[in-house]
From TrEMBL:
Oligomeric and partner information: Homohexamer.
Domain CN hydrolase: 5-275
EC number: 6.3.5.1
Lineage of producing organism: Eukaryota, Metazoa, Chordata, Craniata, Vertebrata
One GO molecular-function entry: glutaminase activity
Biological processes, Gene Ontology terms: 'de novo' NAD+ biosynthetic process from L-tryptophan
Pathway assignment: Cofactor biosynthesis; NAD(+) biosynthesis; NAD(+) from deamido-NAD(+) (L-Gln route): step 1/1
Protein name: Glutamine-dependent NAD(+) synthetase
Classification via InterPro entries: C-N_Hydrolase (IPR003010), C-N_Hydrolase_sf (IPR036526), Gln-dep_NAD_synthase (IPR014445), NAD/GMP_synthase (IPR022310), NAD_synthase (IPR003694), Rossmann-like_a/b/a_fold (IPR014729)
NCBIfam families cross-referenced by the UniProt entry: nadE
UniProt GO cellular component terms: cytosol
Length: 694
């Protein structure tokens, strides 16, 4: 009587449309699973083509190449004697579905289409796919000839069914279906399914991992069963970082945990489990058994294969473990660092250029790159040949071995302090000291000559010379003179990114890193096409509050003492003239609001879906101890006025690592107009009426 099963799940760093690389990683995961005795292997959602193909899903090429990869998998000896569960798009009766293809020994057992599609936030699955709305219904799918030639099958089952092996029953869920209120595992469990599988394309958000873990564990806590989850990991070509966390749970308890952040392209998790634990757990839940007696049964695909062996009484099984969650500071240190590594190696560039101002934001970005260097050196020490190979390509040295993070940072990070007459010596010193401590190649330059040349051209044409407000100029003149400095820094950043290595006689170019945080973007407190304009931005989805905590984490964990003075200094753009040699301009005074207030506005606007009036109603209670209703009204109006005036800047925002659910990223996540009636006359009148009533 077979009762012990060995199952494998994985986290793969797949890349959209990289069919060759994706196939290699799938094969590697199957090899590892088989070597550890697994008889079932689960992979991430849409792993064959990569999850982030977006509008490429419309192309017939994507379907064709996915089937070509599937044929390679089917015909390979590597996939023999193990049930393989892979993800790919499939066109059935001229409708495109997000599917799992489950096969064994050159035969496709079942094609299971996704039932609940993810269509909120960063996800747009309904744009490309149609959900399978025929519950417990199976149709014939006519295989393309390229697959028929391998399997000898003309048609295979397509639809909402489960697999019945000789010893147990397995049912599939795909990503969003776990998060849905009517998850399929509920009724599948009542119908006797003992093993639930979930193939995910779930991305990292700060403080989100525990939600996913809780959902997986709760899926089997009430109903019993084994739940295995696979997930994509890494940057597959856009703003998201898929954070692995493959896991296996039994009867509400985790028995195997995968890493959330790592540079390993393939991570396989294997667990040996006792089916009798599921059966005995379910036996005493009378409410479950009463519901099970009335459940509408699922179609079962019979599989002449067992996941267990006959003589398995002495086989040891996995015991429950305690899940270890990262702190938010650890998540910031690791997630964006892994995302940067994927972007750097896959873009085939030679490193990064970072305009380092000596402030918190650019310093936090430098620390993330330094953390990336730590991760690379750690991976090489642990024998990761792929990371070593990528590092050698980046530094253009076939014998190079990254051993020390500071030394590796010298190769791949160039920092640049761009001083003007409005810059203080303090920020210059802070930038220089931090660059020394992380090991970056540091450049000091002065932009005054370029600023004077640009303003000189304007004066030559118009006969007028703009002045800063401290010298009697208007607010328009003051802002224009600040913007000239900021934009010249962007031009110089790209010039040095393209030619610094050329000047040193080395090949390649550098990726320019942006340093605007999520709160500044929300408020629009940045110059359009300044140093916030870059190739990528690792902190664009992170709040100022979290960045400050991350800086403290770096002081303690990386011993970067230069960060202490950066932490204690008030944030400033240093674009207006100094007063007695000291900075007079500060960010929060310029913005008319604090960074802490900005985070609250952002969460209410996006997560709580609050317009001006609803935000006011919520804040008069939240802030009743510190503000009068009239003061709250003034703050809310000021925020929405500034937000709407500056919303156009979000259309050109540098692609940023997505880390917060109140991100104002206009590309995909936060879809809004960028030309507003900035008076908000009706909305503000409602607020005023309520203020007067109060």
């Amino acid at each position: 009587m077979g009762r012990v099963v060995t199952l494998a799940t994985c986290a793969l760093n797949q890349w959209a449309l990289d069919f060759e690389g994706n196939l290699e990683r799938i094969f590697k995961s199957i090899d590892i699973a088989k070597s550890k005795g697994a008889r079932y292997r689960l992979g991430p959602e849409l792993e064959i083509c990569g999850y982030g193909c977006s509008d490429h899903y419309y192309e017939s090429d994507t379907l064709l190449h996915s089937f070509q990869v599937l044929a390679k998998l089917l015909e390979s000896p590597a996939t023999q004697d193990i049930i393989c569960d892979v993800g790919m798009p499939i066109l059935h009766r001229n409708v495109r579905y997000n599917c799992r293809v489950i096969f064994l020994n050159k035969k496709i057992l079942l094609i299971r289409p996704k039932i609940s599609l993810a269509n909120a936030g960063n996800y747009r699955e309904l744009r490309w796919f149609t959900p399978w709305n025929k519950a417990r219904h199976v149709e014939e799918y006519f295989l393309p000839r390229i697959i028929q030639e391998v399997t000898g099958q003309e048609t295979v089952p397509f639809g909402d069914a489960v697999l019945a092996t000789k010893d147990t029953c397995l049912g599939s869920e795909i990503c969003e279906e776990l998060w849905a209120p009517n998850s399929p595992h509920i009724e599948m469990g009542l119908d006797g399914v003992e093993i639930f599988t979930n193939s995910s394309g779930s991305h990292h958000v700060l403080r989100k991992a525990h939600t996913r873990v809780d959902l997986v564990n709760s899926a089997t806590a009430k109903n019993g069963g084994i739940y295995i989850l696979a997930n994509q990991k890494g940057c597959d070509g856009d703003r998201l970082y898929y954070d692995g966390c493959a896991m296996i749970s039994v009867n509400g308890e985790t028995v195997a945990q995968g890493s959330q952040f790592s540079l390993d392209d393939v991570e396989v998790l294997v667990a040996t489990l006792d089916l009798e634990d599921v059966r005995s757990y379910r036996a005493e839940i009378s409410s479950r058994n009463l519901a099970a007696s009335k459940v509408n049964p699922y179609p079962r695909v019979k599989v002449n294969f067992a996941l267990s062996c006959l003589d398995d009484v002495a086989v040891p099984t996995c015991m429950p473990i305690q899940w270890r969650h990262h702190s938010p500071e650890e998540e910031i240190s690791l997630g964006p660092a892994c995302w940067l590594w994927d972007y750097l190696r896959r873009s085939k560039q030679a490193g990064f250029l970072l305009p380092l101002s000596g402030g918190i934001d650019s310093s936090a970005t430098a620390c993330i790159v330094y953390s990336m260097c730590h991760q690379v050196c750690l991976a090489v020490r642990n024998g990761n040949a792929d990371v070593l190979s990528d590092a050698r390509k980046i530094v253009n040295d076939e014998t190079y071995v990254p051993e020390d993070p500071r030394e590796f940072c010298k190769h791949i990070l160039t920092t640049c302090y761009m001083a003007s007459e409005n810059s203080s010596q303090d920020t210059c010193n802070r930038a220089k000291l931090l660059a020394e401590q992380i090991g970056s190649y540091h450049i000091n330059l002065n932009i005054d000559a370029a600023v004077k040349a640009i303003v000189g051209i304007f004066s030559l044409v118009t006969g007028r010379t703009p002045r800063f407000s401290v010298y009697g100029g208007s607010s328009r003149e003051n802002l224009a003179l600040q913007n000239v400095q900021a934009r010249i820094r962007m031009v110089l950043a790209y010039l040095f990114a393209q030619l610094t290595l050329w000047a040193c006689g080395m090949p390649g170019g550098l990726l320019v890193l942006g340093t605007a945080n999520v709160d500044e973007s929300l408020r629009g407190y940045l110059t359009k096409y300044d140093c916030s304009s870059a190739d990528i931005n690792p902190i664009g989805g992170i709040s100022k509050t979290d960045l400050k905590n991350f800086i403290q984490y770096c002081i303690e964990n990386f011993q970067l003492t230069a960060l202490r003075s950066i932490m204690s200094a008030p944030p400033t753009a240093e674009l207006e003239p100094l007063v007695a040699g000291q900075v007079a301009q500060t960010d929060e005074a310029d913005m008319g609001m604090t960074y802490a207030e900005l985070s609250i506005y952002g969460k209410l606007r996006k997560i709580a879906k609050a317009g001006p009036y609803s935000m006011f109603c919520k804040l008069i209670n939240m802030w009743k101890e510190i503000c009068t209703p009239r003061e709250v009204a003034s703050k809310v109006k000021h925020f929405f006025r500034m937000y709407s005036i500056n919303r156009h800047k979000m259309t050109t925002l540098t692609p940023s690592y997505h880390a917060e659910n109140y991100s104002p990223d206009d590309n995909r996540f936060d879809l809004r107009p960028f030309l507003y009636n900035t008076t908000w006359s009706w909305q503000f009148r409602c607020i005023d009426k309520q203020v007067n009533a109060l």
